[in-house]
Amino acid sequence: MNITRIEAAATRLAGHGVVTPLLNASLLDALAGRRIFIKPECLQKTGSFKYRGARAAISALPPEVRQRGVIAFSSGNHAQGIACAARELGAPAVIIMPEDAPALKIANTRAYGAEVVLYDRVTGDRDAIGAALAEERGLSLIKPFDNEEVIAGQGTCGLEIAGQAQAAGIEEADVLVCCGGGGLTAGIALALEAHAPGLRPRPVEPEGFEDVTRSLAAGKRQRNAAMSGSICDAILTPEAGDLTWPVIERLCGPGLAVSDDDAMRAMALAFKRLKLVAEPGGAVALAAALFHAGGDGDVIAVISGGNVDGAVFTQALDRFGDLG
Amino acid sequence: MNITRIEAAATRLAGHGVVTPLLNASLLDALAGRRIFIKPECLQKTGSFKYRGARAAISALPPEVRQRGVIAFSSGNHAQGIACAARELGAPAVIIMPEDAPALKIANTRAYGAEVVLYDRVTGDRDAIGAALAEERGLSLIKPFDNEEVIAGQGTCGLEIAGQAQAAGIEEADVLVCCGGGGLTAGIALALEAHAPGLRPRPVEPEGFEDVTRSLAAGKRQRNAAMSGSICDAILTPEAGDLTWPVIERLCGPGLAVSDDDAMRAMALAFKRLKLVAEPGGAVALAAALFHAGGDGDVIAVISGGNVDGAVFTQALDRFGDLG
């Protein structure tokens, strides 16, 4: 992985992805006691940064491979990113989803034109179903984070941060990134290394699932003990990837972890002060910037996605709408 | 009023206001049967386009006048725009607000550093209080829309739309604008006349308060019969301004009116498909684009603001969250 690949992905994405703005709200600065800038990837196509990596990976396939189609395993944001980018690029897309995935996410993935294949989490063998389909139709598997082109696509978010920070006169800052498998974190870290060395990428995770934070502290990749028990579903992964971990180890840290309640508080403040819809997992970096990161220098927080049900969002407003 | 003044305002705003992106969501296109683009002014500083005009007007004052301070009458978005821009420019700001204005809006205006003077709607004389303060301290009154520099500031939104539409390959489109006193509508219309003549500005108002729509149909300025009875409080005004109406008459139309329920439906869809928080009055143009504008060409809808209480927002999600 190097910066050239990220820049090539940016060229392929130009005119297709959203160049999300770098936002600031002075009343949030007052709350945190320092300047906070927000990179709202919830405004990206399909409501999360995942579109960047999906489009970068599918557009990197040779035309004859691409036209046979792509396949992905996902019950969430990666599914929608792949489905949308595949349709734009004229590639058939098959998404393997658990049959108990939220009806809305299944419906959205289908609405973007993908073929959804459902499996039973208990009795079904997801990998066997996927492998059989891929073999039969010649589909290319697009992994959610351990894929060089996916990481390069997520890195285009970092290129934008570097340019926008420079334009805003931000020379040094922590850059807090919501971190699951580490595709976005690694991509941003590589872009900042090349173009904004004063910006320091730091992964942010849900408390109890801070495998990357523990890995950075230990100097060795760690796994999460469980895969459920946080509302931050979008960023719950067993461990960082084989490709993402070495980048994160070299360029990022220290990590931060925030509670579910802090994620909900950040959602309520994003509603009130930024007019943005953040999903719980997408709000952890903002939560860390507001409540946990310490220090008094500038901080940039990525809101990584906004695909949240109305009921969960309403709960955040009901509980924490009086804040700030 | 001419384009030169808008371009001068853009120069003064550069690096201060947010260049809001032009967004698109293919699932909204599918719902409307044509391409819809969104200009989200809810992402502007203070949560509405009003910051543009406020900063343009205050920055146009001669330094010795500006340092004496500014005064405004407003219970809403204009108050916050003036308070924020005044603080940035080092000008004292006095905002005259009714004492029954929402506590949050009073608190926000104070949080931006303005002095809030409350009056009793029944027994107080707002104009007399304001005139006495302005006289005593030498304050400059900044009207919410009938001020050439305010209109020029709102016009910077139109300059951005013109450039962004060209970059997106949009040569012809309706541009739907939430319309109260007409400052944003007139400013955008002047900018499009000069830079994007294929884009046609059309005001959108709440049903029952569509004075501008009726005025355009009649060829003569009309007034609203009432000033309450819609949830779209941000855009309820008695009539278009002396400065805005001639511009709107010359360049805009026909107007459109949408129901409160349609505004709420659009809020729910902005949440779900755009990850944006729109206030009722800020959502009428999107509502018209989705439900009322007819035709099959491209359409651009401005979301003019997002300053909505959690309770109202929650109500929109509860009632219309299953849409689209």
Write structural notes for this entry.
- The structure is a homodimer of 324-residue chains.
- Chain A is α/β, with parallel strands linked by helices and 324 residues long.
- Helices cover 46% and strands 14% of the residues of chain A.
- Chain A has 14 helices and ten strands.
- Chain A has helices at 3-13, 26-32, 50-60, 63-66, 77-88, 103-111, 126-137, 148-167, 183-195, 211-218, 244-251, 260-274, 284-291, 310-320, and strands spanning 23-24, 36-40, 70-73, 93-98, 115-119, 140-141, 173-178, 199-206, 256-258, 299-303.
- A six-stranded mixed sheet of chain A has the order 1-2-10-7-8-9, with helices on both faces.
- In chain A, strand 7, helix 9 and strand 8 (199-206) form a beta-alpha-beta unit.
- In chain A, helix 12 (260-274) packs across helix 14.
- The model of chain A has no long low-confidence stretch (mean pLDDT 95).
Please write out the topology.
Two copies of one chain form a homodimer.
Chain A: H1 3-13, E1 23-24, H2 26-32, E2 36-40, H3 50-60, H4 63-66, E3 70-73, H5 77-88, E4 93-98, H6 103-111, E5 115-119, H7 126-137, E6 140-141, H8 148-167, E7 173-178, H9 183-195, E8 199-206, H10 211-218, H11 244-251, E9 256-258, H12 260-274, H13 284-291, E10 299-303, H14 310-320
Parallel strand pairs in A: 2-10, 3-4, 3-6, 4-5, 7-8, 7-10, 8-9
Antiparallel strand pairs in A: 1-2
